[in-house]
What does this fold into?
Amino acid sequence: DAEITQSPRHKITETGRQVTLACHQTWNHNNMFWYRQDLGHGLRLIHYSYGVQDTNKGEVSDGYSVSRSNTEDLPLTLESAASSQTSVYFCATRPETNTEAFFGQGTRLTVV
Amino acid sequence: GNSVTQMEGPVTLSEEAFLTINCTYTATGYPSLFWYVQYPGEGLQLLLKATKADDKGSNKGFEATYRKETTSFHLEKGSVQVSDSAVYFCALSGDSNYQLIWGAGTKLIIKP
It folds into this structure.
C-alpha cells in the first residue's frame, strides 16, 4: 500500500544544532506540506511544495527550510534549533483540490 | 481570506450521548469541507468530507452537512463511544487551492 513515512518519530536535540526531519511518500503526489502542531494553535503550515524544485513559505516558516529534489521526499530542516521549535511536526500530501490530505504519523521534536 | 472556526474544547460527554461539534467557515467560491480525527499519538486521518453545498458526509456513525446558507459544517453523532475520544479538526479547501485551512481542533472526551 502507498504510504507516507516520517522519521525519526522522536528526537531530542540541543539549541543551536541543525536538525533535519524526513518525509517520504510513495503515492507520487506532487503536493506536499509540513505542519507543526502545538497546544492552543492547531495545525500551522510551515512550508509546502507543489512539485520538484518548487518550495513555498507557509505562515510560520522562519527558522525552517525545505528542498524538493524528487517527488517522493520533502525534508524539513531547522537551521539552528530553538526551544520555541519544540513541537510535533506532521508531513502531508494531497493529490487534488477537492481530495483529502494524507498525513504521516508525526515527529515529536524536543529542543533542550 | 478563508478561515475556519470551530468550537473550543474540551468537550466531555458520557457514553451514548449525542455529539455536536460546531464548525463555521468563511470562504469565497465553492470550497470543499473536511473533518479529520486525531487519536492520541497518531497523525490526522480523514473522517468525512463534502465537496458541494447540501452534501452530507458520513463515516463511522458521524455525519456533517455542508450548509452554504449558514456557512457551517457541524459534526454530529447520535451515540458516542469511549473509543471516539480524540481531537477533531474541521478544515476547508478553496476550489482552486491545494492548501487546507484548519480549525483549532476540538478535544472530545467520552466517559464510560
